[in-house]
Amino acid sequence: MSARTRELTILILVGLITVTGFASVYIARQNELSPGSLSYAGIFFVLYLAAHLVARFTVPDADPYLLPIAALLTALGLTEIYRLNPTDALRQGLWVVIGVAAFATTLITLRHDYRRLESYKYLFGLSALVLLFLPALPKIGQTVNGARLWVRFGPLQFQPGELGKVAMIVFLAAYLHSKQEVLAQGRPKDFGPLLAIWGCAMLVLVATHDLGSALLFFGIFLAILYLATNRLLYVSVGTGLFLIGAAGVYETTAHVRSRVIIWLHPWTIQKLPCHTPHGVELMTRQQCGSYQLVKSLYSVAQGGFFGTGLGKGTFTLPGGGNLIPDLNTDFIFSALAQELGLVGIAALLLVLMLFVVRGFHIALLATDGFSKLVCAGLTFGFALQTFIIIGGILRLIPLTGITLPFISYGGSSVVANFILLAGLLLVSQRANETP
Amino acid sequence: MNARVRLVALASLAMLAALIVASTYWQAWAAPDLANKSDNAIRQVSEFTIDRGRIFAANGTVLARNHIVRTNGRTYYYRRYPLGALTAAAVGYATQSRSRVGLELSANDYLTGADQSLAGAIRQIGDRLLGSTIHGSDVHLSLDLNAQRVAMNALGANCGAAVALDPSTGKVLVLASKPSYNPNDVEGHYDRISGIKSPSCKPASPLIDRATQGLYPPGSAFKVVTAAAALDTGRFTPSSSFYDPGYCIEYEKPVYNFEHGGEKFYNLSLATAFENSVNSVFCNIGMKLRMHTLMNYARRFGFDSKPPIDLPSDAVRASGLYKGKRLLSPSEDGQGDPGRTAFGQSYLLATPLQMAMVAATVANNGKEMQPQLVDFVRRSNGEVARIKPQPLGQAIKPETAMELTQMMESVVASGTGTAARISGVRVAGKTGTAENGTGQPNTTWFIAFAPADAPRVAVAVVLQNQTGTGGTTAAPIARQIMQAILSTTPNSNF
Questions:
Q1: What's the CATH fold of domain B145-374+389-487?
Q2: Is B185 a residue whose pLDDT tops 50?
Q3: What residue of B is the nearest CA neighbor of A229?
Q4: ipTM for the predicted complex
Q5: CATH-assigned architecture of domain B41-141
C-alpha cells in the first residue's frame, strides 16, 4: 500500500469517528440543534479529502500518519465546539477551509525545494518579531484577560503570535544551522545574537504580559540551540537567564505576579480585595482571580473516569449563562475532559504523542541539518505549546492563554498549525524520496 | 545530530506523559474532593438533573421533596421544603445559587444515588450512557416531628437550641435552633432571611445551627462531668462530706456560690451539693482533681473534638476550652482555672449537642453512642440500608453512671430542677446558669434524661440572654420535649 493510500484509509476511519461524534452530540442535544448542522461533519470530511489530494500530488512519499492525526484532532475540536456553540463550529469550519488553502499553498509553492527558505532567514526573523509585537501596538492590539495577544482589524481578530511562532522556528533553524560550527566553539562574541534573542523574548513578555508565549518561544529557541550545538551548557545557562528574567518580570508586572499566586494558591478561605466592574469588593480568590482556573478544574474533575459523554456535560446554568468563561478557546481541554473523561483524555494525549513521535521520526530521517532543525523545532514547538496550555489547566504550571494545537477554536491557530503540518510533510517527502 | 533529536523527542514525550499523570490526578484522585467544594457549580447544576432522593421524618412526613421543571428539553429537579423553618437546622438546603448545607450536603451521596453497591453503580453508569434519569435514594431520619414541633414552639422567641437523643442508639430525635429560617427562601428571597431580627439576640444569625455550632458556657450543667470525674476516679463518693462557707478560695481569692446568692450550706455531702448546685464544693473538687483529670473526663464525653454527627463537619463545632475563638489544645489545659472550670465557667464552652451527649451517656450506663440523624436509606430499587448505631466508647463506669443518675434524679425531685418533673415518670436532670459578666444576662441550661430507670430520651436545652435561671427557663422546655417523646410509642422499627 502506498503512503498516500494508507493516508486515505486512515482518513476514512477518522471521517467515521467524526460522523459518530457529531451524531452523538446531535442525539444528546436535539432540542437545541438543527439536523442541518450534522452536515458540518460532511463538509469537514470533504475538506480533508481535498488536503489529501493536494498531498497526493505534491508530497506523494511523505509520512502517511500526520495528516490523519491532524484531521482527528481538528475533528475532535470541531465536535466539541459544535457541542458548545454550533455557530462557532460553522466559523471554525470556514477557518479550516482557509487552513487547508494555506496548507495547499505551502505544499505547492515549496514542493520542489523548501530549503531555499534558508536564504531568507532574516526576512523570517524580522516578520516573526513584527508578528510578535503587533498585539503590543496601541489601537490594533487587544487586551484579553490581562494579556495582549490579539490583534483586531475591523471584524477580523487573530493572534499573530501563532504565525510568528512558525516564522521564528524557520529563522532559528536557518540561523543556528549557519552558525553551528562557530557557536560550538563557545567564543563569547558569538553569543551576542543569542543574548539579543533572549532580550526579545523578555521584551515580548513585558510587552504582552504573557508568560506562556515567552516560555514557548524561549523553549523552542533553547531546543534548536541544543540541537545545533550539542551543548547542554547553553540550555542550562539559557534556562537560568530565562528564570532570572522571569523573576524580574514577576517583581515588576502585577499581572504576571497574580498569575503565579493563582497557580500556587487558587483556593483561599479568607476574603481578599477583588477588582470588579462595580469597584473593589471582598471575595475569596476562587470567586475572583482564580475563578477560571478553579471552574475549569471542576469541569475536569466532573469528567471522572468515563466522562459524561459528548453533549451531556454541564457548562451552563439551567437558565443559560456560562459556568466557565472562554470555554471553546483556552479551555476547550476542560470541556473535553468533562465529556470524555480520563479514558478519552488519555487517548487524546496519546494521539498528540503520536503526532510528536511522527514529527521527530521525520527529523531523524531528514538528510540535512536545516531540515532536521526545522522539523524538530516545529514538532518541539507543538509539544511545548500543548504542554503549556494543558499543563496550565491542570495546574502543573501557571495558566496562560494559548491555544491547543488543531483543537481550540481560533482562526490564526488553525492556519498556523496547517502550515506547520505542511512543513513537516515537505521535510518528510524530501527524506523519503532520497534513496 | 540524531542522538540530540532523540533526546529532545524524549523530553517532548515526557512533557505529554506528565499531562496524562496530571489528568489522572484531577480526574481520579482529586475528583471526589473537588466534587464537594461548595463553589463547584458544575457539580451542583449537573446534580439538578438527578431525581434527588427525598428526606423523611421518623413518622414518614416529607421534609424535602423535588419540584420538577423542564427547560430546553431537560428536566431539572429543584428542592422544596414543605415544613419550612421547622426542620431547617437538620435538613439544610440545596439550591443553585448557594452552596448546600445540612443533610442536603452531608447526605448528598445518598440523595444523588452515589452510595450504590457495585451492581448499582454499574447500572447507574448504564443509565447515564443511555441518558435516562438517575434516581437518588430516600433518606429517612430519626427526627420525632411531634417533639421537634414542641421544641420549636417552646423555644419561641428565645435565642437558643434544643437537642434530644435516644440514649441507647444515639439517634437524634430533636434538633431545634432558634431563630430559624425558611429554606425555601434561600433561592430567590434571600433578603427575607438576611432581614430576620430577634428581640433576644443581636445579630439574629438564623442560618447558624445553634444546636451543633452554638458555643455557650455550660455553667453548672458541666457539674455532671465534674461529678463523673470525681466519682469515676474513686477519689469521692456521693456521701463524701464538704464544708461550704458560701465561697471557695482559689488563687487566694474567694469564688462565691452564684445560684444561691451567697447562701451558705456549711456541712453537706457531694450528693446534696449536686442537688443544690453548690459552686464552692465543685470548685474544691476541681482544684483537687486538677485541670488534667477534669479535662480528661471531658474528653471521654467527647469534648475537644467535633461530635461525629452525620452533618457537614463545618456545621459542627467542638466543645472545650476556648481562648477568644481558638480551641485550646489538651497541652494548654493549664490556661483554664480548675476551680471555675469545674462548675462550667472560665474558658469552657459547649454546644447543646455535646451536652445532650453527656446526658445520654449517663443514661446509657456510661456508654456513649454516636449521634446520628439518618435512620435508614431506601434506594431507588427498594433496597433498604439501615444506619447501625455506633458506640463511641465507655466514658465512665456503669456504677458511676448509676450514682450520677440518682444524684440527677434528686435535682428534679427536690433540687434546682423541679420544673422538669413529669408525673409518673422518673426524670434525671441538671440545671445550668452561666454568668456572662456582671450586669449581663445569663445563658441558661437544662440537661436531662427520662425515664431514669429505662431511659428513652436524653435532652439538652440552652437559652441565650435570660434573666432567670436554668431551672426556671430551660427546665420547663426540656420537660415538654421529653413528654412529647415519651408520649409517642417506642419506635416500632418497621
A1: Beta-lactamase (3.40.710)
A2: yes
A3: B1
A4: 0.93
A5: Alpha-Beta Complex (3.90)
